[in-house]
Amino acid sequence: MKRIAVVLAGCGAKDGSEIHEATLALYALAANHAEYRIFAPDTIQHDVVNHITDEALNEQRNVLVEAARIARGDIEVLEALDADDFDGLLLPGGFGAAKNLFTFAFDGIDFKVLPRLEQIVRKFHARKKPIAAMCIAPVMLAKVLGEYGVEITTGPQGALAASIEEKFGAKVSETDREGVVKDEKNKVVTTPAYMYGDSSIAHIGRGADRLVKALLGMTE
Length: 220
Fold this sequence. Notes:
Layout: E1 3-7, H1 19-31, E2 35-40, H2 63-71, E3 76-77, E4 88-91, H3 97-100, H4 104-107, H5 115-126, E5 131-134, H6 137-144, E6 151-152, H7 159-168, E7 171-172, E8 181-183, E9 188-191, H8 201-217
Parallel strand pairs: 1-2, 1-4, 2-3, 4-5, 5-9, 6-7
Antiparallel strand pairs: 8-9
């Protein structure tokens, strides 16, 4: 049975991991007979957002503690994730991923990546172990693996795709709401999920299943 590491960024689309993406990715892993372990950084979230009003709340929450809501408490700190213990890596999206795992939400295309996560991604890549990413998370892979000409999707083509290609040297391909883009050379597979703002939960579920099938198909 293949073992997949899953990295979360909290709990909630606007300040953590997108819950539909995370949950349906975990379901797809289990349904396709893979084991998974969940990890998150033990850090303070950049903000806490009221998901009804979009207003920032005057409080602090911990990324690991919040991600444990999705993991049902069965979670480990990101520093404990060792690529040698797993067959692949999966990164759900959510605007909070672009806040707590990398800083695209604040810095745009000049964003920085959490150093420990960058180390993990580079080690999976160096070990030729596949990496899957959803929604906004592929943008982070474009920066970390751009020097290798990694191919990703951000959903529809547009200004973001052009900026990624120009800044990082990655290739950005278009696909539909539940499609996947597979980079066989770099063993990277990505799906747009809620990068299409009108995606339904059914789109997310089908995309997650296709993503996981492609991820597992790239394992050795």
